[in-house]
Amino acid sequence: MELDGPPHPASIAAVALGAPLALAPEAWARVAQARRVVESLSERGVRGYGINTGVGALCDVLIDRPRQRALSRNIVLSHACGLGEPLGREETRAVMAAQVAGYSRGASGVRPEIVETLLALLDADILPAVPSRGSVGYLTHAAAIALVLIGEGRARHGGETMPGAEALRRIGRAPLVLEAKEGLSLVNGTPCSTGLACLALHRIALLLDWADAAAALSHDALGSQLGTFDADALALRRSEGLQAVGANLRGWLDGSARLAARAGRRTQDPLSLRAVPHIHGAARDALARAEAVVADELASVTDNPAVGGTPEAPEVRSQAHAVAAALALALDALAPAAAALAAVSERRIDRLVNPLVSGLPAFLADEGGVSSGFMIAQCTATALVAENRRLSLPASLDGGITSALQEDVLTHATPAATKLLQIVDNLRDVLAIELLAGAQASELHGGAAPAPRLQALVARIRRDIPFYADDRPLGDDIERLRVLLSRPPHEVIRP
After folding, report:
1. What average pLDDT does the segment 209-234 reach?
2. 49, 103, 138, 468: which is the annotated catalytic residue?
3. Which one, 121, 181, 318, 490, has least CB within 10 Å?
């Protein structure tokens, strides 16, 4: 991807997954112009936060030109106090891609060499080790990336960990000596929360399609009513997401002899089956709203201060654009939507394993009593749903006071993104359980054939994971199915 204007969230997610990133000539020109503005501000002694002043509660302490390099370096070192396991490869790439996109707006004032080094690290897939915990916003995560640029910290490539200086050597670069404002720009803004949000949006969009597939498989295996997702009936409710889910379900269930054979046996199905378009559709609508907010964030300048004007008439604007309240609120709203997908999936799993409502062998076991089948897999799904319920509490209301009352309101956009990613991981595993249980139920059902697309889906699952007969740890099967869920369903069952 060659970046000129603001990227779409899907573009940042693509870079997170490994796509290349480059800047268009116009973007490079903006970066260079902003740097010239910073140098002019520094030379003229125009007061600018983090340029020639301290940061946080030290914002009124003036820093003379000879010490501005030291200020930039010290900001990076002092802010690098994150803890915990490092972010994953995709998460780190997402943050770095959003960081480059932010600098390309031409208001941060870092030298082109900073951006070149970030791009070179991405291109080589040599990534800073970014501790995942310890930041109320973005500072510690961003500082861990900045450490590598100055030859400090640690980086990872595949399974190898190396010092920051070695990472730079491998891409043919020497450690950077940070100039005025660069230390602050490297730890500032919202690239951390925005990059992670882009990745969360991508993963949720993928799992929404899998949720529809899993629901269709359960619907078919349980012999539910054929006309539940009729287009005319669903058109009575206004929701783009609902209509999209209805169309998906009709596609998955088209041609099901099993459903045709049971037509008219029930007045209506239970809500975990009948309300799939409404619950899944609401999650799709929530995703669309969140995507609009993330797109706005990517199109915004979130560095504080932002620079503008010209080298002859430089301007510095101190503001609060690094406060990502809108993003935090949007991600907090998306979290329960993703959790609801897992919750209704668990309810369908329960119906599949419960002989009182399924008409199938208890717990989908081949030999009840001797075999427990999917009994504990449903317990696992229940545990993950309960964890999601706890994670769905809003991060944006956590509050807190830092930096000696200078930062007396905190919106926690990055924690909102990281806990959303945890919810999405749990959703993926609950859907994996439903797909495994649905495949088992479909094969135990006998009688009339399921829908052709569902037959193809079950066959694809069976290529990797055989019928379950209490002959191996079921947790391993769930983990193996994660690979399948990393691709869209239509790609997985393609001949």
Report:
1. 93
2. 49
3. 490
